[in-house]
Amino acid sequence: MTEAVLDTSAVLAFLRGESGGELVGPILGDCAISSVNLAEVITKLIDRGSTAEQARQTTETLSMNVVAATLETAALAGMLHARTRGRGVSLGDRFCLALAMETGLPVYTADRAWAELGLDLDIRLIR
């Protein structure tokens, strides 16, 4: 059963052993992540020296429920742009927020700016 949505920053905190990662580890197998955010995680792992195959294998071992971006999710992410403009919210962030909006699940992130967006979401800051 999916319990929460994970932002890229939450997954990376777990993988890198950063502050807040300890909150993410126990729930990883019960979480959803947008395919857009998974691409961000893989990109960051490659940027830090992993091969593409190593990055893919690393993310597969996390057993997260990867949710493909749909037209509905893309539309929500696009609509969030006006509300989040100038607040440091990336396209990947908006896809994560949109998935949380669609599912009604809490979303875990290290991005403190999300708490100031005024969205009707259960945003759980990991640090």
* Radius of gyration, whole Å: 14 Å
H/E topology pattern? EHHEHHEHHEE
Name the helicity range: 40-55%
State the low-pLDDT regions, or none: none
Number of strands: 5
The rough form would be described as globular
**Overall mean pLDDT:** 96
Number of helices: 6
Structural class: alpha/beta
Intertermini distance: 25 Å
Strand arrangement, major sheet: 3-2-1-4-5
Profile the largest sheet.
5 strands, parallel
The proportion of strand residues reads 5-15%
InterPro entries: PIN-like_dom_sf, PIN_dom
Pfam family, one: PIN
Organism: Phenylobacterium montanum
Protein name: Type II toxin-antitoxin system VapC family toxin
Question: What can you see in these coordinates?
Answer:
Residues 5-117 form the PIN domain. It comes from Phenylobacterium montanum. This is Type II toxin-antitoxin system VapC family toxin. InterPro entries: PIN-like_dom_sf, PIN_dom. It contains six helices and five strands; from the N terminus they run βααβααβααββ. A five-stranded parallel sheet has the order 3-2-1-4-5. Helix 1 (8-16) runs parallel beside helix 3, helix 3 (35-47) crosses helix 4 and helix 5 crosses helix 6. It has 127 residues and is an alpha/beta fold.
Report a brief summary of the structure.
Residues 5-117 form the PIN domain. The chain is α/β, with parallel strands linked by helices and 127 residues long.
